[in-house]
Design a protein that fits this description.
Elements: E1 3-14, E2 17-29, E3 34-38, H1 45-53, E4 60-65, E5 68-69, E6 77-80, H2 92-102, H3 107-120, H4 136-148, E7 154-158, H5 166-183, E8 186-190, H6 194-200, E9 203-207, E10 214-219, H7 231-249
Parallel strand pairs: 3-8, 3-9, 6-7, 7-8
Antiparallel strand pairs: 1-2, 1-4, 4-5, 9-10
The chain binds adenosine-5'-triphosphate and magnesium ion (MG).
Length: 250
């Protein structure tokens, strides 16, 4: 599905002071495209992503999904929240099965997907534990597989791998890439990791602390799967790091 952010504005009022977080933001994400959002803490990445997800409304402007206005969350979109947002009263298994039950996926199919997702995220044997019994990285992996369980057409991810350890992070980057390619998912991912942005994305967007303005929209023109060893890969990282450093000087 094609995702269009059309002139989105968002202002929050904190202690009687207006804080304009997003001003006239425009962004097009093509069907099956993978776009990353980079930018300093507080520049409005989560705000923009949650507006795309339909979890909050923009003050002005709109988000369109295949030309249809996004008004609320929908089954075609899966969202991975920055703070995992698991149901604390449900076990890992119940957390992952929940959206599939909501969408009336058949029992055998549910169990089959659950097994393969647990396997993918190395969570086998943990399925009967509760979120508070897991580490941060484990909880994050549960949030990922819960989002993938219903074969979404659009995947919105807020730092989905931020708490995951180095090795698992690289494995999951590959797995996510595979799933994204196979299912032609339209993906938007917030990350603070320049390497991750270059590895995963077709395009990287850099937002500034100044009302979320888009400072750069960089196409990553490298073959997939990406080879971290080549100089062009490093060049993209260097370029993005430079742009990001500038954000802090503003
Ligand atoms: N519900 C809210 N009410 C008031 N202010 C908010 C609300 N949500 C976000 N903000 C403010 O909007 C700004 C942008 O927040 P947002 O969470 O979008 O940043 P971010 O780019 O995701 O940052 P980080 O990288 O730290 O996650 C911040 O200054 C934050 O305090
Ligand atoms: Mg955020």
């Amino acid at each position: 599905m094609r995702l269009v952010v059309d002139n989105v504005n968002k202002t929050f009022i904190n202690n009687n002071t207006e804080h304009k977080v997003l001003e006239n933001i425009n962004l097009n994400v093509g069907k099956g495209e993978f776009v990353s959002l980079l930018g300093p803490s507080g520049c409005g990445k989560t705000t923009l992503l949650t507006i795309m997800g339909g979890f909050q409304k923009s003050d002005k402007g709109s988000v369109l999904l295949d030309d249809k206005k996004v008004e609320k969350p929908g089954v075609e979109r899966a969202f991975i929240f920055q703070n995992y947002a698991l149901f604390p009263w449900k076990t890992i298994k119940e957390n992952v099965l929940f959206p599939m039950k909501q969408q009336k996926v058949q029992k055998e199919e549910r169990e089959r997907r659950l097994e393969s997702l647990l396997e993918m995220c190395d969570l086998k044997g943990k399925e009967n534990m509760y979120p508070h019994q897991l580490s941060g990285g484990m909880k994050q992996r549960v949030a990922i597989i819960r989002a993938l369980a219903c074969d979404p057409q659009v995947l919105l991810m807020d730092e989905p791998l931020g708490a995951v350890d180095f090795k698992m992070r690289q494995n999951l980057q590959e797995e996510l890439e595979n799933i994204w390619t196979k299912n032609k998912i339209t993906a938007v991912m917030v990350t603070h990791d320049v390497d991750e942005a270059v590895y995963m994305s077709d395009r990287v967007i850099v937002m500034s602390r100044n009302k979320g303005q888009i400072l750069e929209d960089l196409k990553i023109d490298l073959q997939r799967p990406r080879n971290r060893e080549i100089s062009e890969y490093e060049d993209y990282k260097t370029r993005l790091t430079k742009i990001l450093s500038k954000c802090y000087e503003e």
